[in-house]
Amino acid sequence: xxxxxxxxxxxxWSPYTSGAMLGLVVVFSVWLTGHSLGASGSFENxxxxxxxxxxxxxxxxxxxxxxxxxxxxxxxxxxxxxxxxSLAASLLSSSFKLSANPDFQWRAVWGPQAWKRWLAAFVGxxxxxxxxxxxxxxxxxxxxxxxxxxxxAAFIFITGxxxxxxxxxxxxxxxxx
Amino acid sequence: MNDILxxxxxxxxxxxxxxxxxxxxYHKIVNVFRFTDLTVLKYMLSALVxxxxxxxxxxxxxxxxxxxxxxxxxAGNLIGGLIxxxxxxxxxx
Lengths: 177, 93
Description:
Chain A is mainly α.
């Protein structure tokens, strides 16, 4: 019991342990609920729902009706759970802290200004979401959920993700690579 | 209602494992592309191996019907992945 509490309060786990935990989560999710995990889709669902309120005609397309149903979907609730789970994990390890620009590596490369971090996060997230929309999923929705079912799409996607990820980091970290 | 509760619980475990592995941090995501910290790969591949084993076991026991949810279309998956990777390296998510 003491050991379990100590593990729960630990700042970080081995990536193998937490990865295996995600594997079990994927199995139970598909087995018990019939849904597979995903993250990027929920933003599209919510965006579609907002569009429906602003302009119902613009939201009346095949995409919002069949591919990404507009509104609050199962995945949106999943994302609420993700937020609560990571919040609980950081609260339990007493590492919870509010900070506008928390990462030491970011500060070392780009400086301490918070607006730079927020701008890069905003622009990067738009690019990322756009790519996920074209590919049919993100790291969790396509690479993990598709990969466990041995979907070829997942492995093509991972290949593309690493090619451009490595190229872009090479550009950003030119001097300090 | 039960469906929503299940979603929140599954998401809770998902978020917990992400936070404990450190993948909520910018440097962990970016450093996998610099080959200085392979946490992302270790995490993703352990999840894939465990998930595959479990799902194909359940499929073999006829407990579930495993289906490929995302259709394969070379150009879309590859170009999407290329755009996605750029955003990922920039934002660090």
